[in-house]
Amino acid sequence: MAGARPTRAAIDLEALAGNFAEARRLAAGRSVLAVVKADGYGHGAVPVARSLARSGCSELAVATVAEGAELRVAGIALPILVLGGIHHAAEAAEAVALRLVPAVHHAGQISWLSEAARSQGRTLSLQVEVDTGMARMGVPLSEAAAVLEQVESSDLLVLDGVFTHLACADESDLEPSVVQLRRFGTLLAEARKLGIAPRRVHVANSAGLLATADLASASPPEVNAVRPGLMLYGVPPAAHLRERATLAPVMSLQSEIVAVRRVAAGESVGYGAAWRATQPTRIATVPLGYADGIPWGLGGRGIALVAGCRVPFAGRVSMDLVTLDLGPVAAQIGDPVVLFGREPGEAGATLPVEEVAQMAETIPYELLVRVGSRVPRVEG
């Protein structure tokens, strides 16, 4: 709207489609279940889901029933797996009403879901997560076969899938992942003997998908789907996996210079006088800060793109503003600034979010999802 500050997150849906195509190529015939939790990793779950559907995606995954409800309200009709499952009977009823596919992590959830399905006169598809080594969520391996039998014997519940989650697929040492895959394979073999054949069996997140060739010998033959998340948004989950796929950043956090001032050598900039100019220079002020998702820890060590050049942060990150040391860069008020992602235009420079995350001593996942709600997501 007129008068709004010039800060925005530009979302490149063509890049998203290209990244999905890469995921599908690596999946090599397996179904691609696209993860759009946490508001599509901060990109906007609804436009992301619609774009993925146009690209041929047939299934989605979210973390919560509320996230699934948002997609249903927006008219997204694809199957939606709720990775976090349900936590009480009322949530089970909502999952049934919305025709979501909740993950089951313990036997108590089966009772809630069965009762909700019975009261609404419906059958419900669900998936069972099995804990093979993450020790976070999922049915313990020792109890998994019994839980699968319980679901399979129900006339109200349909076993849509079985999955597990790899804890170390983004590490160069894949032995822990191999151990998890073998444990999962043993369970699937046991289920097969019991006559249990879920429609979907999946293990690989983005890292697992990118490392598919390295894990192929340990992957159970029943696996017929993958569930990439981060790579869909153009970010490799680890540096050593970067060359496994051609990915393009989907989000570019952009703003403009709103003030420029000259400072003399020795003058300070920002709170606490934490930064002082070592020589005469020009300071640019940019209207976004830690309330918008810029980590406070980038103060004094972050960089941004201005006119294709990398310029350093000067001083601390404020709630609403950051300041940059322009040095020799001839920038003025109104010139564009990129905090991560790509500059506008085909020849624009790129500042990868994973590089910024490394400066902030965090992970790219966190930078993407912490971009604040007052930053509008704009296609472009």
Would you kindly provide a written description of the structure presented here, covering whatever features stand out?
- The protein has 380 residues and is an alpha/beta fold.
- The chain has two domains: 13-236, Alpha-Beta Barrel (TIM Barrel); 251-379, Lyase, Ornithine Decarboxylase, Chain A, domain 1 (Beta Barrel), CATH 2.40.37.
- Helices cover 30% and strands 23% of the residues.
- The protein is built from twelve helices and 21 strands.
- It has helices spanning 13-27, 37-41, 45-54, 65-73, 89-97, 107-120, 141-152, 175-193, 206-210, 212-215, 353-359, 364-369, and strands at 8-11, 31-35, 59-62, 80-82, 101-104, 124-131, 139-140, 157-163, 200-202, 225-226, 251-256, 259-263, 268-269, 275-276, 281-286, 303-306, 309-312, 322-325, 336-342, 350-351, 377-379.
- The strands form four sheets. Strands 2, 3, 4, 5, 6, 7, 8, 9 and 10 form a nine-stranded parallel β-sheet that branches.
- α6 links the parallel β5 and β6.
- α7 packs parallel to α8.
- The radius of gyration is 24 Å and the shape is elongated.
- The mean pLDDT is 96.
